[in-house]
From TrEMBL:
<keyword id="KW-0804">Transcription</keyword>
<keyword id="KW-0805">Transcription regulation</keyword>
<dbReference type="InterPro" id="IPR011598">
    <property type="entry name" value="bHLH_dom"/>
</dbReference>
<protein>
    <recommendedName>
        <fullName>BHLH domain-containing protein</fullName>
    </recommendedName>
</protein>
<dbReference type="GO" id="GO:0003700">
    <property type="term" value="F:DNA-binding transcription factor activity"/>
</dbReference>
<keyword id="KW-0539">Nucleus</keyword>
<feature type="domain" description="BHLH">
    <location>
        <begin position="1"/>
        <end position="31"/>
    </location>
</feature>
<dbReference type="GO" id="GO:0046983">
    <property type="term" value="F:protein dimerization activity"/>
</dbReference>
<dbReference type="InterPro" id="IPR036638">
    <property type="entry name" value="HLH_DNA-bd_sf"/>
</dbReference>
<dbReference type="GO" id="GO:0005634">
    <property type="term" value="C:nucleus"/>
</dbReference>
<dbReference type="InterPro" id="IPR024097">
    <property type="entry name" value="bHLH_ZIP_TF"/>
</dbReference>
Length: 51
């Protein structure tokens, strides 16, 4: 749990385990949305180059 706390910004301020896990889940979901956005942008760029 300490390892995850160190990876997630602001997670060290949360003391209860449920709140900490919730913050970690939100952070991972945010990272997933960012990656999906980048993948969408890169595929749009390739389509523009091909077309």
């Amino acid at each position: 749990m300490k390892y995850l706390q160190d990876l997630v910004p602001g997670c060290n301020k949360i003391t209860d385990k449920a709140g900490m896990l919730n913050e970690i889940i939100n952070y991972v979901q945010s990272l997933q949305r960012q990656v999906q956005g980048w993948m969408g942008l890169s595929s749009s760029y390739v389509v523009c180059l091909d077309g």
